[in-house]
Batch of 4 targets.
Target 1
Amino acid sequence: MLEWILRGLGQGRITTRYPAKPEPPPAGYHGSIDVLDTKNAPSTLQLVCPTGAISVDQQGDLDLDRGRCILCGECVRRAPERFAFRSRYETASRSRAALVIDGQDHQPLQQTREALGEQARMLRRSIHVRHIDCGSDGSEEWEIQALWNPYYDIQRLGYFLTNAPRHADILLVTGGVTNPMHSPLQRTWEVMPDPKALIAVGTDACSGGLAAGSGLTGGGVDTVLPVDVYVPGSPPAPIAIMHSLLLATGVIADSKVAA
Amino acid sequence: MSPLRSTEIAAAELPGYERLGASIEPAPAGEVRLRVGAPAFAGAARVMQEGGARFVSMFLADTPERSLIAAFALRGELILVRAPTGPDAVFESVGRWWPAASWPERELAELHDVNFRGEDHIYRSRLTAPDADFVGREVSGLDVFSIPYGPVRSGIFEAIQFHIETGGEDVPRIHTRPFFKHRGMEARFQGLAPDAAVHVAERVAGIASCAYASCFSQAVERALGIQAPQRAERWRAVYCELERMACHLDVIAKEAETTALYVGQARFQILKEQIMRLRARLTGNRFGRGMILPGGVRGEGMMSLDEVLAALDVFERELRRDRRMFLGTTSMTDRLVGSGHLERRLVEEYGAVGPLARGSGLSTDARHERPYGNYTRLGLRVVSERDADAMARVKVRFGELSESLRILRQTIDHLRRRDGDLQTQLDSTAGAACGWVEAPQGELVMWVELTQGTVRRVHIASPSLRNWALFDHAFPKDVLTDFAFIEHSFGLTPAGADR
C-alpha cells in the first residue's frame, strides 16, 4: 500500500486550477462552431446540417442553434467562409435562446469565472450532484465521470456525487429522454429538495440531437422538465460540464437569496 | 458465378447440409450467403449449430427481397442464411433451443411483427419497451426478496435495469433488462447519404465511436465493391486501437474503484485521460469522432507522428509500473479471482464475444478470425485466459493494452514510411453487405443496404447486447456485493445494446 501512496504522490500536481485560472483547450479542438458571415446566405445551407441547426430566413440571414449542433463539421467543410470550428470549452448557457447565435459570438458570458467560483464558496463548498441517463450515447457519462478524476478533481470545489436524489442539489441529465425514461426522470426530480437545479448535458439532452424525431426519444430534457443550464456538445468536455455546474450553483445561490 | 470457394465447399460438407435445399448466392469475400425457404430456416440454424458455428444475429433485410437473415460465424467466414418472408410467413423459433437467438427473436417479434412459433420467454413483459415498475415474477422463501436495480443507477452509469433476487447474500437469480435507451438509431440511418450516415454510426455507442464508424464504412465499401486506400485503413486502425485502450483503462479504473483501491483508480483514470487528450490533439475530438467515413478517412491526424510516438512512450512507461502494482495488490486481486465465473460452454451457447469470451478461454477476435483493413497486414496476438472469472477478463484487457501499443507503433511506422491517398470515391450507388470490426466490447457486425446512393436499411449486431444476455448466469457462487466487480468486468455499454 505504501508503494501506491508514493506512486500517487510521485507525479506532483496535475489538477487543473479552473475556474481560478483559465484552462485552454488544445489547438484545433472542436469545441463549438462560429458563424463568420450571416448575411446573404443561400437557403440550401440549411440542408447541410444533419440535425437542422442551421436556419436561413427569407432575407438570407443565417442562424446557428448550438443547442442542436452535434459538431459534425459538415457546414465547416461545405462553407468554410461562413463556419469555423472554435477551440473552446465554456459553451454552457443559462438560457436555451442564448444558444442560438446569429453572427459573431456576442452571447454574454453571464458571469466571469471568478464570480462563479465565489458562488461555489458561498454555498460552503457542499453541493451534491446526482446523474440520470435518459438515452445518451454513453460518451457523456464518461465525461461526467472524468470530473472526479485527478485532472479535474471537482471535489476541490466542493462538488460531491450522491446516489440518493433526496440528497442532491443538482441533477445532471444526459440524453433526449427516451419513452421508458420519462417517468423515472420525473420521479427523480420530484424527490429532490429545493433549491435545486437541472443541467441538460450534451446536445442530445439540449434538443434531442441526431436521435430526435424517431418517436422513441424526445426533443430534449426541457420538453419534460424546466432546465436551468444547457451544455451543448457531442459530448461536452469535462471543463464544459464543470463550467455548467458552476453556473447551476449560481441558480441555487439566486434562489437561496430570494428565499 | 465464380467457382465455389473453399469455405463454401466446407459449408456444403456440414452434416445435414443436403437436407436444407439451400442455394448459394453471390456475396462479397468473407461472406457466404445461403437461401432457404421459411420452413427450413430453423433447420438451417440447427445445421449451423451442429457444425460448430457461433450465432451472430438475426435481422430483416430488403435486398434482394424482404427476408429474414440469420448470421453465423464459422471457420473464418460470415454465413448469412436468408429466408424470404411474406405477410403470413411463420418461422420456427431458434431461440427456444439456442439461447443466443432468444433476444434477437424477441426484438424482431416486437418491433417488426415477425412470427415465431414456439418462442417462449419466461418474463412476459416487453423486451424493447421496458417498464421501470414492472415486476417480472414474485419470489418466495425465507427472507428472499427481489431488488429492481436501475434504470436510475447509483453513480454515473448508463440506464439499464437488473432484477436481483437475493436472500441478502446469495444471488440465486438475476434478470437483465436492457432497452431503456432504445433510440431507434438503426432507423435513423435511412435515407442518408453514406458520408452523412457515418455521424449516426458514431453516436450509436459513443464510447466506441471509431469502431462503429469503421464498421459502417467497411460495410458500405464492401456493398459497393470498393476498398479504402491503405493509408486510410492505417489511420482507422490508429483511432480504433486508441479507443480500445481508453475503454480497457476505463474498465480497470472502475474495478479499482469498486475494490476501494483509490490510488489505483486515480492512476488508471490518469492513464485514460492521457489517451483522451491524445485523441483530442490528434482529431479535435476526445472520442476521435469525425475522422472516419465510407471510402477512407477525412484527413491526416493533426499531430505529427513523432509526437504521437513520444506520447505513447511516456504512456507505456507509466502503464507498466501501474500494471505491476495493480496485479501485485492482493486486496484487489482477491476480490476478482473466482468472481463471476462463466463456463466456456455457456459463453459458446450465448455466442458471447470480446474480452468476455477471451477471458473464458475462447479466441474469438474479429481482427483475427476475419482480418479486415489494416489487420490483414499485421500479425495479431489474441490474448486469451482460461480462468473464466473477473480477474481473467481484467488480465485479457491488460494483455490487449500491450498489444494495442504494439499495433499502434507498427502502424505509425508504416504511416511514416510512405505517403498515399486517404479517400476512394464511392462510384456505385447500390448494394448490400456486412461489415465487421472488433470493437472494445467485442465483435461488432453491421448489415448495410444501399439504394440510389442512400442508406436503405442498417442492422447492428452489437457486442453489448450479445454479451449482456450472459449476465443472468454470471453469479454461480457469488454474493450480492460482487455485483459491481462482475458488471464492470463485462465492460459493456447499454447505448450500444439498445441502439
Target 2
Amino acid sequence: MADFFDNWTVQVRKGLLELCILNALAERERYGYELVKTLVAIPGLEVTEGTLYPLLSRLRVQGLITSRLEESSEGPARKYYALSKDGKKIARLMNDYMDTLNEGAAVLRRKGEIL
Amino acid sequence: MTEWTTSARKELDRYFSQVRYELEGSGADATEVLDDLRRHIDEEVAAAKLHAVTEDGVRRILSRIGPVALAERSAGTEEVETAGNGGNGKHGVTAARQSTSQWPVLARQGAGDVPTAPDPPDEAIDTEEFANTNPVRSTEASGRKRPVAPPGVGFVIFGVILPSLTIGVELVTRMCTAVFFDPLPTFWHLLLSVLVPISNGMLAWAMACGRRDCLDVGMERLAGSSWLEKRSTMRSKQLRMNST
C-alpha cells in the first residue's frame, strides 16, 4: 500500500514540477538560486536543486523560458529566468488542464464520499 | 574572498564529470547546467559565509543538491505495467513510475466510467506541436540510456582468448622473435600486452553483469594502456629495422 502511494506521488510530482516552474516564473522574473530555493521549499514537491537545473536548461532549450546573466553586488553573477511567449501559452494550457482534472477528481470524491 | 582547497576542487571536478555523463541525452545543455550548478554552489558558499571551502564542505553542499537528472531518468525509463482491460478503469501498476508527458494519455486510456481528461484547446498549440515542445517527452526519445548488451561469443574468443593464447605461445616458443622481431622485449611490454585480454575480459564481465559504471570509469584507461603497448612495439620494430 505504501509503495503504491509512493509511486503515485512520484508520478504526480513529476508532472507538477514543470508546471510549478512555469507558474513561479509567470509571477515574475527570478534568478536561478532564488527560483530553486522557492521550489525546494514547496512542501510535498520534494525536489532537489540537482533535478531543477537540468529541467530549467531543457525548458530554455525548448524555448519555454528565457535566461539572462546579470552581475550581482552580493556574490556571483545571477542568471535570471523568465517565461517566453510560448512558455506563457503552455503554462496557460497546463493550468487549464490541471483545473479541469482537479474539478473532475473533486466531483468523483464528493460522489464517493471518501472524506 | 573564499578559498578552495585542492581536494575540494577535485571533489567538485569529480562531481561535474559525473553530472556531464548523467546529462548525456537528457535534452538539457550540459555546459549550461554545469555553469548553473557552479553558480549555485558559489551562492551556497557565499550564503554560508565560508572563508575556506574544504572537501567535506563541498560534499555537504553536493548532498543538498542531490543527484542530477534523476527526474528525467526515472520519468522516462521506468516501466509502467498497465493492465489492458478495455476501459474498466483498473490499472495493474507494478512499477508505477510514469512520464509526465503521459498523464493526459493515462487519464484517457484508463478512463472507464471516470470522466476523461480534456484535450488541449485547439486555438493555442496543436497536439503535435505540444508534443514536440514537451520537455519530458523529448527526453524520453533521447534520454534513455541504452541497456548494456551481453558480450558476444566472438568478442570473448577474439578479444580475450585469442590474445591470451598468442601471448602465451610467443612467451613459450619465441616464434615471432626467431622469425621476425621480438614483440615482448621487456617485462613492461609484456605487462602492457596482457592488458589487451585483461581489459577485454573486464569489459566482457562488465557487459555480462550490466555494469555500465565499470564500462565508463576504467575501461578507457586500460584501452589507452593497450594502445601504448602497440605503439611501443611498433617503435621497437622500427628501430630494429633501422639498425639492420
Target 3
Amino acid sequence: MALVGPVNMIITEAVKLNASDVFTILDPDTGGANTFSIALSPSGAANATHWGTRTFLEEETYNALKNMSVTQFKAYVDQVAAQRGRTPVGSVTAFKNGVMLDETMGFWDFAKAQGLKPVG
Amino acid sequence: MRRAFARVVRGGGVPQFNPRSLFSGSETGFLYDLNDPTGTYQNGGGTTAGAVGQVVSVVRDFSRPETVKLTTLPAMTVSATVSQNGNVLTFTNSPANDQASGNPGLSTHTFYRMTFIIEGTGQVLIYVGGSPIAFSPGTYTLQQWFSGAGTSFIFRASTGGFNGTVTFVELREQLGNHLYQSTSAAKPMLRQENGNNYLEFDGADDSLSTVKQVAWGSDVIDIVAGVQKTSDAAIAIVAELSADSETTAGTFGLAAPHSAAGADYRFSSRGTVLATASAAGFTAPIKNVLTGRGNIAGDSAILRVNGTQVANVTTDQGTGTYTNQILYIGRRGGSTLPFTGRLYSMLGIARALTATELQQAEAWVAAKSGVTI
C-alpha cells in the first residue's frame, strides 16, 4: 500500500459527522470514524468549533481528495465502500466542499494559519 | 551520581540479557521491543508484519509467554457439506463459503497462533480472530491478532470450493498488554535509525493504547523508555496509565516535556495524592533513556535519565495501588497532549527492579535506542 503524506486536514464541527461517515469507508482499518480527533477552537476553549487530523493516506484516496469533483469523489467513495464491504455514505458534499487540506506545514502551523488552537 | 565508566551499546550490544527474564515471576507489566520482527503489525487484523515506512496498528507485549490454549477443537457450527470428527473437519465437495465456525473463548486484544494441516483440493479461508487468509493444502501456523470484532474461529471453503480435510493441531495464546490503534490517521509510523526501529509520533493525533485495562495490582512501577523528543513546544505524554494521571487515583505518567518550552522530563506517581519528579535542561531535539520509579506506599517518585538519577521526590502519595486503567502511549487519553518524537523500546513492571536488573534494563533500552549511557 503506497502512502502519501502526512496530510493535514481540518473541518468544521458541522461537517464532522459527514467526515466521519466518509472516513469510515476510506480508512483501510476499522477505526476511520475517529479520524478527525484533534479538537480545535479559535480561543482554545471548549467546545470545539473545528476538528483536525494529520495522516498518511492511500495514494488513490489522496488523489481523490486533491483532484476530484464532488461527483467524482462520491463515485470513488462508493467504489471503495463496495470493495471493503462497508455501508455507502448518502452524500459526500459537506465534507468534500468543507475540508481544508494542506501537506506543506506542520499540523499546528496549519491550524494556526486558520486561526485555531488546540482545545484542552 | 553518574557512573565512572561509560558503556557504548548499540543494536544487539547486550546479548546476555533478555528483558523477558524480568517477568519470569508472572509480574504484571509490558515489554515493547520494536526491533523484534514479530513485534509490530500494520493492520488491526494483525496479519501484516510491521515494516519500516509503514504505519503501526498493533505493538506486541512480550512480557507474557505464549501458552498452549487448545489442543482439542471445540464443537463447531458446520454447513451441510462439512462435518466434524474431533480435530478433523471434513469438507465434501464444499462450495465456496460453506464453513465450520465456532468460538473457542478467545480473549480480546490478544495474539493467537494456530497450527493446522490442510489436505485435499482447493483452498480454505481461515480466521483466528483476524482477517481471513486463504491456504492451499499443506501444514501451517497462522498467527493473528484478535481485536474482539467478528467471529473468532472460521474454516471456510474459498472461491472455487474445497474438497478435503482440515486437521486442527493446536492453538497458542499470548495474553498481555498489547498496544492497538484502529484509526489509520492516529497510527504512528515505524521508522529505523542505525538499525534501531522506532515509532514516530507526529505531535498531532498519533497514539496507541492497550484498549482494555491493565490490571496492575501493585503500588510499585519501574518504567524504562528510549525516547527522542523533537519538540518542547507543549506538554506531551509519552506513557500514562489512565486517561488523566493528574486527577485519577492509582496512576503513573511519563511526559516529555511536561511544561511548554520547559525542556524538561517528568515522571509522576499517584496513590490518592500526586507526586511528580521532574528535571529540566533537556532541550529538544534530544534522545534519552528515561526511567521512572514509583512506589505509592514508599512515597517515592524517581526520575532517571540515561541511567543517572535526576529527581527524587518523597511527597506523600496517599494510599492504594495503581488501579485498573487503560495504558495510553503518545497522547493523553488518546485525545490531547500529543507527543512529538520517537519511541524506541519500552518496558514497565509492577515491582522494584534490583540495582543490577535496573542497570540491565536501562542498558537494553539504550541499545535499542542508540543511546550511550
Target 4
Amino acid sequence: MDRRKFLGVLGATATTSALAFKVPYVFARTKTKLRVMGTHVTLQEELRLRAMAELGIDIEFEPLGSAAVLQKAAAEPKSFDLYEQWSDSIRILWQAQAIQPIETERIKYWNEINPLTKTGKLVPEAKIGAGDAPNKILHIQPDGTLGTKESNMVSFLPYVHNVDSFGYNTHFIPQGEPYVSESWGWLLDSRFKGKVGLVNAPTIGIFDAALAAQAQGLMTFKDIGNMSMEEIDQLFSILVAKKQQGHFAGFWTSVPQSVQFMETDRVYLQSMFSPGVSACRGKGIPVTYASPKEGYRAWHGVMCLSSQTQGAQKDAAYEYMNWWLSGYPGAFIARQGYYISNPERSKPLMTKSEWDYWYEGLPATENLLGTDGKVSVLKGQVRDGGSYVKRFSNIAVWNTVMDLYDYSLDRWYELLNS
Amino acid sequence: MWHVFKSSLTAKVLGILSLFVFSFSGVYLILQANVRFIETSVKELEQVSNKTILVLEVNKDIVELQRDVSVYSQSGNDAIFTKIMNNYDSIKARLLLTDAVLSQPSYRQIIDSMKSIIDRYGDNLKVLVSRYQIKEVLITETLPAIAEEARTLLNNELSSASTLSQKVMWNEMKSDWFELERNVNLFLNKKDYAKQGKITQGLSSLAIRLERLNQSEVAHHETISRLEELIKDFDKKFKQAKQANRNYFSLVNVVMAADSVEFSSLANQLTNLALEQLNNIKSESTKSVEATNSILTYSATFSIFLVCLFVTFFHIHIIRVIRRLTHSFQRFITGDLSATISDSNRTDELGVLSKAASRFREMSVQLSEARVLAENSAKAKSEFLANMSHEIRTPMNGVLGVVNLLKKTQLTQDQRDMLDIIASSGKTLLVIINDILDLSKIEAGKIELDYVPCNINVLIKETHSVFVELAESKGIVFNIESLPQAAQHHYLVDETRLKQILMNLIGNAIKFTESGSVTLSVILIDEQQDTCTLRFSVLDTGIGIAEESLQTLFDAFSQADNSITRRYGGTGLGLSISGKLLKLMKSELQVQSQLGQGSLFYFDVVLSLSDDVEAELDNQDVLDTNVSLLDILIVEDNPVNRIVITAMFKALSIDRITIAEHGQKAVELCEQQCFDVIFMDMQMPVMDGPSATKIIREHSQSQHAHIIALTANVLESDKETCLAAGMNDFLTKPIEQHALITALNKVSLSEKN
C-alpha cells in the first residue's frame, strides 16, 4: 500500500478509531510484536498494515496451508501469539493445550456477536448442521472441556465464517439452479471424470466427498459429522475406486493452487473456498459457487490465543482481536465473501451496494471491488446462494475433527497414494 | 520497361527465362527454409526428450524420497534421514538444472509449481525430525515413565497389602493399569483407533477405584493422591501424544504426501506437455515435409506449365509469325503480291521483319508495274514497227511493182538505167527495212523458228548462186565446200533464217574483201543417232578486224569502225541479227580475225535428222500448168496493190480474176460465185480479212476455197490470227513473184491430191 492510500484509509476511519480505542496504551513504550499464524484467507497485507497503523504495534503474519498451519500450531504453541483458522482445528488445539481460554470480558463487542456462534442457528428456523457447530466448541466448561453451556471463557474469538461448497466452470458445465439442481453429487459424477479437484484436508475434504457419495446414492451416514469406522471404510473404498479410474485431477493444498487448477483447466469443478472463486472470476474464469440442494459445508473462523502467550503480547493479542470486531475488518473481509460475527458494526463501513450484495443477496447496483482492489463482482450479479440468512439456513455439515479423525487420516493417506 | 519488352524478342525471351530462374530460386529458398525448419525440429526434439528424462528422473527421486520418509516414520533412523536430506538436495539441484533448460512459459508454470512444492517439502523436512521426536518422546519416554512410576507404586502397595481384599483391590488396579497401558500402546503405535473408547473407560475406571481406595481407612493417602496425579498426567500426555501423532502424520501423510503426489502429477503434466510438444514438432515436421513435397509437385507442375507457356509463346509469338512471314515471302516470290502480311503492328524484331516484307511487296508491286509498263512499251514498239512495216512495205510494194511493170514497156536507155536505179534503191531500202524489222522482232521475242526438212548442200548451192555474180564482178573467187555424200541427210532447219545468216556473212565477206577469195564451207563435226552437229564457216581474205573492235562487233548499229560505215555503207545490223538468230538456234557466232589478213566467221549448229523427204518442195519458179484455169478473187483495199497483184497474175497468164475492195464485198461475191483461190488482205475498211474468211467458211459457194492471206504485218501473231480464222496460207507484202508462184503451186498440189 502506498502512502497516499494509507493516509486516505486512516482519515476515513478516524471517528471509528477514536471511539474504539479510548483505552490508553499501557505497553506503548516498547513496541510489541504480535505474531499471527494462519492462512492466506485472513492474513492479508492490507489488514496487517491497517492494524499496525491503528494499534501502534508490530504485527508479523505467517500464512501457511490449512494442514500445515494446524500441525505447526498444535505442536509449537510458542511459535505464535494468535492463531487464525477454522473451527475444526479447535478440538485439536485445545486437546494439545496449544491455546488458552479467551476472556469474554476483554472482548469489547462480545454482546454484538450474533446467535450463529452462540447457538448454532443464525435464525431460529434454520437447519442445524451436523458435526461441530461453533456453539458446541465455543464455551469452556468448568471441567475444562468444550461445550454448549455458556461461559465467560471461550476457546476462540468468533469472527469470520462462511459456507463452502464446490465451484464449477460454466464454460464446461452448464449453469445449474441453486438449491434445486446443483448437488454435491457432481463431484463424483462420472461425466466429469478426470476434471474434479478436492481440497487436501481430511477434516474438510472428507465431508465434501461424503456429501457427494450420499448425494449420488452410493451410501448413507448415520451421522455424517461423526462417521463410524465402517462408514469411513465404505466412503474411502468408493473414493479410491474413483481415483483409480482417474476421476480426480488433483488435491489442492492452498487457495492459489485451487485457482491455478481452474485457470489451467485442470479441473472443471472442485472443492473451493470463496476467495478462490472470487480470484477465478477476477481472472475471467466463469466459476459458479454452487448452492447444493443437500446444503453447505459450513465453517467458522476461529481466532485463538496461544497457550504460551502472556503479558504484553497477550494484551496486544486482545487489542488485535477487538480490532477485528471493530467494523473495518468485517467490511474488508466481506469483499471476499466472508461474514463477520457482528455484521452491524461493519455495515456503516460498507457501501449500500456492497451490503446488499454480500449480506442481502441482492443484485449488485455497481461493480464491486474485491480485497485485492480489482473488480470481483459486476453490476447486476447476484451472490450465489442468496443472502446471509438464506445461505446459513442451509447447512449440511460443519467442518469437524471427528472422533475417528486419526483413522480417516490414515485412509486419506491411502487415498492420496492410491 | 514494358516498352523494352514489347520491342525486343531478346527481352521477351530473357523475361521468360528470368521467370524460370526466379521461380526456381523461390522454390530453392522455400525448400532451404523447410530443411532448416526440420533441422531445428530435430534439435528441439532432442532437447525436449533430454528435459523430459531429467524431469522423470527427478520425479523418480521424489517418489523414493517419500518412501524413505515413510520408512523413517517407522524407525526414526538418523541414517535414513541423512539419506533423505541428501536425496532432497540432489533433487533441488536437479530441478534448478531443469529450470535452466526449460524456458517455455507452459513449462515455466509447472516448473514454478514444482519448485514451490520442493521448497515447501524442504521446509516440512526441516520440522519432520522435531515432530517425530516430540511424538517419540511422548510415546517412548514420557508415557512409559508415568506408567513405570504408577506400576512401582501399585506393586509396592500390593506387596505391603495386609488383607486379601486389599490385595485383590490393588491387583485389580494393577491389571486395569496394564490394560490401559496396553490400549494406549495399541492406539499410538499400532493405529488401533478403536481402543480410544477403552482408554477413556480405563482412565475413568482407574479414577473410580482410586476414589474407592481413598475412602478406605487402610490406604496410604499419599500414594493414592500420587496415583491420581499420575493418571491425570497420563491422560494429558496420551492426548498430547495422540495429537503429536496426528501432527506428525498430517505432516507426512497429508501435507508431504500430497506434495509428493502433486509433484508426480506435475511431472506427468510436464511429460505430457513434452510429448505434446514432441507430437507438435513431429506433426509440424511432417507438415513441413508434406509442404516440401507439395511445393516440389507444384513447382514441377509450374515448371511444366512455364515450359509449355514458353513453347507456346515461341510457337505463337515467334515461330508462327516467322512461318506466316515466310509464307508471305514465298507467295511474293511466286508473284502473288496479294498475300497478306500480318504482325506488322508489332514493335519487336519480327515487326521490323514484317515491315520489311511490306516494303518488299510494295517494291515488287512497283517493279511489276514497271515491268508491265516496259512490256507494254515494248509491245507498243513492236506494234509500231509492225504498222511501220505495213505502212512502208505497202508503198514500197507499189513502187517496186510499178517499176517492174514499167520495165516491160517501151523505154529509152536512159529511162531504163534510171528505172534500174529506182529498183535497186528500192530493194536496198527493203533490205534495210527488213533488217530493222528482224532485229525488232528478235528483240521483242516475236521470232519463231520454223523447222522444215532441208537439203543442206542445195541450200549451199543456192546461196552460192546468189553471190557468185557479185564476187566475180569484184574479181574475187567465191568457193563453196559442201558436205560429203555420207553426210547428205535431210535436216530439220529453219531454211530461211539459216540462209539469211549465211547470206549476211557472205555479203559482208565479199563487201570487205578487195582481192583474194571468199570460202563458204560446211563440215560435219559430230554425229549422234538423231542429231548431227554441223559447222558453217565463211572465210575471207579481206581487211580483217582490229582486236579492240571484236568486242562490239555484234552490237546493233555498230560496225568495227565508224569509218567503215562511211567507206562501205550498210546498217551495221547484219552481224547483230545473225548473232541473235544463232542464239535462238542455241548456237553462237564465233569470229577469228587479223587486221589486214582476213576474217573467219563460223558457227556450230545441232540439227535433227528428218525422214520426210517428200516434204521437200520443188523450188523452181515454174507455175503449174493448170493454175491458169483457176477462178481467183483478190480482196484488197489499196488500189496500188490491186494493180500490182493483178499485173503479177497477168504476167503468169492468169486471167480469171475478180476484185473486191473490202471483206464485205468479198463475202457478197462468194455468195454468188465459187472461187478456187482467194487472196485476202488483213487490214481493210468495212470488214477485215479474218472476219470475212470466217463468214465465207461458214456458208457460201466458196466455203472450200483456198484462202491465202496478204498482209504487210509480218508478226507471227498475225499469221496465227489468219490461220485461226480459216485461211490456208500466208504471204507478206511486198509480194514477190517467186513467193506467189510457190503459194499457187501449193494450191495446185492440193488440188491434185
